[in-house]
Design brief:
By secondary structure, this protein is mainly alpha-helical. 46% of the residues lie in helices and 11% in strands. It contains 8 helices and 5 strands. A hairpin with a 7-residue loop joins strand 1 and strand 2. The chain starts with a helix and ends with a strand.
Length: 201
Amino acid sequence: MQYNQTEVTMAKQIKLKELDTNVGAEKMEITGLEAVVPQIRKIDTDIEALAKQREDLRGIIMNKVGPIMKDGLSKGHLVKSYIVKSEDGQPATVLYKNAYSKLDPSNEQSMKEFLGDMFSMFFSVQTSDASLKKNANTNELRKLLGDRFSEFFSETKSIDFTKDFMEKRASLHDQLKAPVRGQLDKWMGDHQAKPDLRMKG
């Protein structure tokens, strides 16, 4: 598109109004939707009430399934999926997962003393370094820097459950002493992710 000289000159003369940061943004009232706003507000309130009701009903299911799962686990029987029968013929599923929050790394020594050689069967110690290039070799960098490594990098340590913790716990049940079984079950109970409640089969 071609502009003539007059249009260009006029464009240069236009001065944009600067934003006055001391003045609040203008508000404009919209009419004609007065009946819609309370409907949305009511729906939001209903959703909150229904979400609470659903969580309460979920609690009833978990209060029934949880003890059954724990009792089986205490006997070395691992069941991760529980089918909850339904009046409408479409059962729900409670699914336990090998997903856990991390354990405090300050527990490492006491956990190793308690579990001995079995520690590495159930847990792994993870250390995250500063972000390095994709192909960088952290171990080589440690060797090069030696004791000075900590001057340049901070490390975050955590204790993670192994990916197949539940399976190992069940398969080794008969080989574990009762106090070890009890402690493993407590750690699992304290750190395991909330089980899924799936309403579709």
